[in-house]
Write a structure and sequence with these properties.
heterotrimer; A mainly alpha; B mainly alpha; C alpha+beta; A: 2 strands; 76% helix; globular; C: alpha+beta; 11-stranded mixed sheet; 15 helices
Chain lengths: 324, 290, 516
């Protein structure tokens, strides 16, 4: 097991190295690093100073090492628009995105798994069919359109929830969070629901097919033959076998949710990393774009590593060396 | 009964799927015939009149024609704009999927058949890409490449190819052990011939299902990118851009500028997903235990 | 007891009673990127700076210069200005304002990397604090505009802002000013929170606390007002104006803004980008160099329709480069009447009976309805035979391209204190040493206009300067140096009990909101 962990960690570092090479290539080789890292509105002295600091007059290989050195110490340039270090900007907004993503994932898991279970247990019932039909709808509706409709219905017509923005924040172990206050929860509700929709549908479908497959397995027939109650069969045996792949998918989807938050944050004006990315693309604040890329890549590699290890721990059938 | 007939017959036993198919046919027809059935060419600037802007559905123009779905802020007929937008959205979705399919399947089959370093390289690349969400890849590509129809297609192809490569490779690895492949090798057929004329047809079912789902995903992704302002330019609007334009008028009561394109988009995507769903039930052996 | 609590909690979630009281919540239309008042000269940052800082001169609602931290100023000689500072003004940390702080602030505009405020202090070659309340500034050549330029230089505390960078301002460490509010908190992308300065030297705000929410998305900002999340918003989306006016709970305030939207037409190149005949072949000469073509294009635009239909009344068709209340406005000039037949005739006369093809370039995220205006104008040009292709860019991509002369027909918006300043920047023959024509993308060059402007800037007599400014405006407009479109009308919307004195400079000042 330990060797498996070590191997996966090394693999992750390998991925990071490859990604850093790709990012470097995109910025320094394909793009013009002058345009990308130095504010085009600077005057001559400023440009000269920045060129020297970034080593843009050195050979490409040397530049790569300078880039890595800077990146590992967290220096990815200064935002053109805000004139503060890009990394600081992104890390400042990360708690908001993580809060939104976590809330969305929670909603997805708490709604998707039970509903999927029901649909899997009673596929031909009216409820079962409705749930499946609903899941197709949830899958198909574009996130941004649902967001618009949610604002129209819940904020404007009914006036129950705020239209945009994040609520007041309180500090939890130094990180500003907004879910500890009522006002904060009210602001969190719609964006989290919007972001969760796709994953609710995904989890419903996964859980349903997993349940149906599990119900056909031999151990279920044996359990029934042994006279166990249906509740116990479902609640203990079926659920446990269904949950393992579902939970790992959910884990991987967490990364996807963080990326998709870009859309929800734009519509609801939620001050997270995603909105920062879109704004930066629009104002051509390239250091922030590069910084976002580096941070998000690292985040994903970490998430994938964690989920991978979790899966191999949970499912003893998957072990090092097995092809997936 | 040929396999195709059997599949079609099984497909047809679900009424919902049939409805989805009918809807999809309608959508494709509307998209294909848009230039002929639209009451107005919405991009012929000389025909637009600002004084006709934001008219509600059913209003009449000065010339007496009826704007069935109203007009937008430039005086453009919404029905025509939606038909043209549908055409653009569907064209972008299908062409990027077709291209991604071609590239991904070729790479996947080649990797499975030829093995060795090609296999390792293609799979590493595919795995790497699949570990990142599609929207992120698309956003970064567009940030680097800029706006434009060709750039969107590049982004959409880049996002999809890995799915096809992986699926094609997995299917090919299974097929490759079968006897008919041994026979083909014994006949000393060329690699390319074996891959494309023997392996490929038998790997099709899962690829077909995947492609159908991906078309819907591609259309939705393009709409999302256009909504965020990173997609197609305003001279070639897709449904996403129309929705984005109309966003600003939602609250002032001019709902039709955003809601109708949204409904068109949802209908297109839902119909594709309904068909894909049924197709996967019919073609995927795991699901066939009904 | 528990049940009551639960009901109350449920009720407050559902009905979300907003906490009113002495807090004002305002929705801003553009992102505030930095608290540093000497860094980025964009309107939202400047707007915020006016709450925490003051400048030596202020500007009233009609964009006229009034005393600020300086109670009076005079030109001692042709190249020396003397400012008398207000006594007894204290910074938010209690220290008293002296001329040294002003000297430091002017100095700082040069020190901030990529700071955009040195354009206002560039002409100052010498600064001296004669005593604690007297400041002397010297310029290299006679320059009458120093008091105007200083309106853009915020005075920071020498003590608090020594060796400080933008991060120190964003965190609040250096945010010590003399303004009507104290800085409380800046949550980037989300909100700015301020508290009333009870020791302010001027009229105190009616509000103890102010929360500026950053909501650049138009519908979201409006929805915030409608749902009661916000007490007031700026830049009301134009399509919603009629509805808001009918709503009994809401109130609007509007005023003709100093911002004029106009078009630059390339007049210096023989071959301009994007110009061709309808078959795609390049033209023998640049049509924009012909006065008749420029006039024809101006006649083809239906300014009335744009103001009424596109802007929902939030625009005033323009004949000048500055709006009516601004110094140097020539009232005898009238907006070009809509005359598509006349336009076609002029084009035929000029040798383009079948029109030609061109590219219309504009921004898509800077001016009110900029993208829609571009499309509407293209529509109108198509009707007279000129086929216009529209291309739009975010402002950050637009400006560098425009400066490199990549656009033949480019939209721009400009707000100015005075007509001659606007003409100097937009229409005067480019001359970097004298600071002329910095934004003259078309390359228009008329020595008579330049001469009139020079004479105006050198003269200290206001009346004479105004006459010269008007004359220059007449010359430039009759020559179609640029094609003016309309003046924006700045709009604010708020809950009924509130009132706002609308401003020509489009700023949203929390301290000018009154509760009735």
């Amino acid at each position: 097991m330990l060797s498996h962990i070590v191997r996966r960690v090394l693999q992750s570092f390998g991925v990071l190295a490859v990604m850093s090479l790709l990012v470097f290539a995109a910025v320094y080789a394909v793009g013009n690093p002058m345009d990308i890292l130095v504010n085009p509105q600077s005057d001559q002295d400023e440009i000269a100073r920045a060129t020297a600091a970034l080593g843009l007059d050195r050979p490409l290989l040397e530049q790569y090492f300078i880039f890595i050195k800077h990146a590992s110490t967290g220096d990815l340039g200064r935002s053109f628009a805000f004139n503060v270090p890009a990394i600081g900007l992104i890390l400042e907004r990360m708690p908001a995105t993580l809060e939104l993503a976590t809330a969305a994932m929670l909603i997805a898991v708490l709604l998707g798994i039970p509903l999927g279970l029901w649909a899997g247990l009673k596929p031909r019932s009216a409820a079962g069919r409705t749930i499946m039909a609903g899941s197709i709808l949830g899958f198909s509706l574009p996130t941004f359109w649902v967001g618009l409709m949610l604002i129209m219905v819940f904020s404007v017509w009914l006036g129950w929830l705020p239209t945009s923005g994040r609520g007041p924040t309180t500090n939890l172990i130094g990180i500003p969070v907004s879910f500890l206050t009522l006002e904060g929860l009210r602001h969190l509700a719609l964006p989290a629901a919007n972001l969760a929709l796709f994953n609710v549908s995904l989890l419903i479908r996964l859980t349903r097919s997993g349940t149906r497959e599990a119900l056909q397995q031999d151990y279920v027939r044996f359990a029934r033959a042994k006279g166990l109650t249906e509740t116990r069969i479902v609640g203990v045996h079926v659920l446990r076998n269904v949950l393992v792949p579902v939970v790992t998918v959910a884990g991987v989807e967490f990364g996807s949710v963080i990326a998709f938050a870009v859309v929800t944050e734009s519509i609801f004006a939620w001050p997270g990393m995603g909105k920062l990315l879109i704004d930066s693309i629009n104002v051509l604040d390239r250091p922030v774009i590069v910084g976002y890329l580096c941070i998000v890549v690292t985040l994903f590699v970490a998430i994938n590593l964690f989920v991978d290890l979790l899966y191999s721990w949970l499912d003893p059938r998957v072990r090092p060396g097995e092809a997936r | 009964m040929t396999p195709a007939r059997r599949v079609a017959a099984e497909f047809a036993t679900s009424r919902i799927a049939l409805a989805g198919l009918a809807l999809l046919a309608l959508v494709l027809l509307a998209a294909a015939l848009a230039p002929w059935i639209s009451p107005q060419d919405p991009y012929d600037l000389a025909r637009l009149d600002l004084l006709d802007s934001r008219l509600p559905p059913g209003a009449r123009s000065a010339a007496g024609t009826v704007y069935w779905l109203g007009t937008d802020d430039q005086g453009r007929d919404m029905l025509s704009a939606i038909l043209y937008g549908l055409r653009t959205s569907v064209a972008v979705g299908f062409s990027s999927t077709a291209l991604g399919l071609a590239i991904g399947v070729s790479l996947g089959l080649a990797a499975a058949w030829l093995g060795g370093w090609l296999d390792a390289l293609v799979m590493r690349l595919a795995d790497l890409q699949l570990s990142f969400p599609s929207i992120l890849i698309a956003l970064v590509l567009l940030a680097v490449l800029g706006q434009g129809l060709d750039k969107i297609i590049v982004a959409l192809v880049a996002v999809q190819w890995a799915y096809y490569a992986r699926t094609a490779r997995a299917a090919a690895l299974v097929e490759r052990r079968k006897e008919y492949i041994d026979a083909a090798v014994a006949l000393a057929l060329s690699n390319a011939r074996i891959i494309f004329r023997h392996l490929l047809p038998n790997c099709l079912p899962p690829l077909l299902v995947l492609a159908t789902v991906q078309v819907a995903a591609a259309i939705t992704l393009e709409a999302t990118l256009s909504f965020l302002g990173l997609g197609l330019p305003i001279t070639q609007p897709s449904l996403g851009l129309l929705i984005s334009n109309g966003f600003n008028y939602l609250l002032s009561g001019h709902y039709w500028i955003s809601v109708f394109p949204g409904i068109a988009l949802v209908l297109a995507v839902v119909s594709i997903n309904l068909v894909a769903d049924r197709l996967s039930e019919v073609l995927d052996p795991h699901e066939r235990r009904r | 007891m528990h049940r009551l609590l639960r009901i109350l909690v449920a009720g407050s979630i559902l009905w979300g009673l907003p906490a009113h009281g002495a807090e004002l919540r305002i929705g801003l239309a553009a992102d505030v990127t930095s608290m540093d008042p000497h860094f980025l000269g964009i309107a939202p940052n400047i707007n915020m700076a006016w709450h925490v800082f003051d400048a030596l001169t202020h500007v009233d609602e009609d964009a006229r210069l009034i005393p600020g931290l300086a109670v009076s100023w005079r030109a001692v000689d042709a190249t020396t200005w003397e400012f008398r500072l207000r006594r007894g003004v204290r910074f938010h940390d209690g220290t008293e304002l002296t001329a040294e702080d002003a000297v430091f602030s002017i100095e700082r505009t040069f020190q901030v990397p990529n700071g955009q405020f040195r354009t206002f202090t560039q002409r100052i070659v010498g600064k001296e604090a004669l005593d604690a309340h007297t400041l002397r500034l010297k310029t290299a050549t006679p320059y009458a505009m120093v008091p105007y330029d200083l309106n853009s230089v915020f005075i920071v505390s020498r003590k608090a802002a020594a060796r400080s960078g933008p991060e120190d301002f964003d965190s609040g460490k250096a945010m010590i000013g003399t303004g009507p509010f104290r800085f409380v908190r800046f949550a980037r992308g989300d909100r700015v929170e301020l508290a009333r300065n009870d020791d302010y030297w001027g009229a105190k705000s009616a509000w103890e606390k102010v929360s500026f929410r950053i909501v650049p998305t138009d519908p979201a900002r409006l929805a915030g007002l409608l749902s009661g999340d916000l007490d007031a918003i700026e830049q009301v989306p134009t399509a919603d104006l009629p509805r808001i006016r009918r709503d009994a709970r809401l109130q609007t305030a509007q005023k003709v803004s100093w911002r004029t939207i106009f078009f630059h037409l390339d007049q210096q190149h023989d071959r301009a980008p994007g110009l061709a005949d309808k078959a795609g072949r390049s033209l023998a000469r640049n049509p924009f160099r012909d006065l008749r073509v420029r006039r024809a294009l101006s006649k083809a635009i239906n300014r009335q329709a744009i103001s009424e239909r596109l802007m929902d009344g939030a625009a005033l068709p323009a004949s000048n480069l500055v709006s009516p209340p601004v110094f140097g406005y020539a009232p005898d000039l009238k907006p070009e009447p809509y005359d598509p037949d006349g336009a076609k005739r002029l084009l035929a006369e000029a040798g383009y009976p079948d029109g030609f093809a061109m590219t219309l370039s504009a921004t898509n995220n800077r001016y009110v309805n900029d993208e829609q205006i571009a499309q509407a104008v293209a529509q109108m040009l198509a009707r007279v035979g000129v086929r216009a292709r529209v291309e739009v860019f975010p402002i950050n991509a637009y400006l560098p391209k425009a400066r490199k002369h990549e656009f033949a027909f480019a939209m721009l918006g400009w707000g100015s204190f005075s007509g001659d300043l606007a003409l100097r920047t937009l229409v005067a023959t480019p001359n970097p040493e004298r600071g002329f024509g910095a934004w003259n993308w078309s390359g228009y060059s008329n020595p008579k206009v330049d001469e009139l402007l020079e004479r105006g800037f050198a003269s200290v007599d206001e009346k004479r300067r105004e006459a010269l400014a008007r004359e220059a405006m007449r010359l430039a407009m009759r020559d179609y140096a640029v094609i003016p479109l309309h003046h924006q009308i700045a709009t604010w919307a708020m809950r009924k009990p509130l009132a706002y004195a609308p401003r020509t400079d489009e700023f949203t000042f929390a301290h000018r909101f009154q509760a009735r």
